[in-house]
Each structure stands twice: as C-alpha cells, then as structure tokens.
Amino acid sequence: MSAPEISVVLPCFNEVENIPELRRRLVSVLEATDRSFEVVFVDDGSRDGSWEAMVAQAAEDPRLRAIRLSRNFGHQMALTAGVDGARGRLVAVMDADLQDPPELLAEMLAKADEGYEVVYAQRSAREGESAFKLATAHLFYRLLRRWTNVDIPVDTGDFRLMGPKAVAAFRSLRERHRFIRGMTAWVGFRQVAVSYVRPPRLHGETKYPLRRMVRFALDAL
Q1: Which among 38, 109, 145, 193 is least surrounded, fewest beta carbons within 10 Å?
Q2: Which CATH architecture has domain 6-220?
Q3: Strands (DSSP E) along the chain, which ranges?
Q4: 205 near 21, Cβ under 8 Å?
Q5: CA–CA dist 191, 187 (Å, integer)
C-alpha cells in the first residue's frame, strides 16, 4: 500500500464516547479534501473500552489504524508514538475529545499548500470553561513565554499540521520529557496560525486539571 498524503494522529485516553463521532467527522473532512489519508488512533492505556472502539472503527475502514501502548505513558508520549508510526507526507496531531474541530483541517491544509511547514491552531475563545480554568490557562502560556527561550505562540494546544521537514526534525528530537508545542516551535521553518473558537467538551472530562498543568509546565522548561 502506498503512503498516504496525510496522517492524522489521535492520542486517546478514555475517549470511548467520542470515538465514533470523531471518526465520522474526521473522515468526512478528509474525503472532501480529495487527498489520500490515514487516521492513526493511539490508545494510551485506556480503561473504558476505547481500544475496542478503535479496533472496531479500523475494521470498518482500512484507512484507519490503531496503536496500543502497553500502559498509560501520558498524552505527549502517546502523541510522539503516533507521529513516529505515521506514514503520511504531512502529519496532523489533534486531541480526540472533539475540542479540536476536525473541520479546521481543511484550512490548515490550504496553508500548507501555500508553503508553510507548520500550521498551528490558535484559540480565539474557549467555550464552556470556568473562569478559573481560563485564568490558569492564560497564566500557563504567558509564564512559558517568559521562562523559556522558545517563542511559543500563546493560546495554542497540540493541534497542528506538520510538513515533511518539520516531521523529520521532530522525530530527531528524543527528549525524555516531551513538550510538543514547544518542540515544534523550536524546530523553526515557516509557521502560521489558524484561528478558531474552541468548543466545549461533549463527553468525559479534561485530562489536564491544574495539578497536571503545573507538572506539564515544569517538563516544558
């Protein structure tokens, strides 16, 4: 089987309720681009039936693949495993909770066609989140910009599209403590933002409460 034009990597931890709708929307968007693609689910030690849901989806569509980690290694390591296993010339990474809207991929691909090597999604607003969550997220990004030597765009997550040069550079970085948005900012190349309003989570709960955000920030330094 020839390599697809684009791979979409989806780290998943206890996302069984979101997987069917995610697959439906994602495949619809990718088919409309008229490009060959693969969707790579990465199960990060889920305990809610997510793995079985991924396998069932992949059995129905050969363009879908499922990778299972031996235990819960964390979101950043699951994302890295997916990028390492992706076969596409372009690689997109996004969360599986549908707060990263699949429909934004069409605009991101258009930017890649203009010659941008990294296209990252930047939140203009965050729906359905408490004032405390918004305040801590605001502080998180601004402290990172102050404490690190990398110009990390504010109000971004891991939702981004990387071209072949950025993918190769990312794969060459083998740090134990992973901070994907910082690493992709550090590799350089032409980068551009695509703005979007982040919708509320439909099912489940956030995987980044305050305690994990603090630990995440320390790993990024």
Answers
A1: 145
A2: Alpha-Beta Complex (3.90)
A3: 6-12, 37-43, 64-68, 90-93, 118-126, 156-162, 191-198
A4: no
A5: 10
Domain boundaries, the chain: 6-220
Task: Record the tokens describing residue 29, joined without a space.
Answer: 């968007």
Residue 6: what residue type? Answer: I
Closest C-alpha to 180, from 211, 209, 153, 210: 153
| pLDDT tens over the chain, length 221 residues | 689 999 999 999 999 999 999 999 999 999 999 999 999 999 999 999 999 999 999 999 999 999 999 999 888 899 999 999 999 999 999 999 999 999 999 999 999 999 999 999 999 876 655 566 656 666 666 666 666 666 777 778 889 999 999 999 889 887 766 667 667 777 778 999 999 998 876 665 665 555 555 555 555 45
The span from the CA of 40 to the CA of 67, in Å, is 7
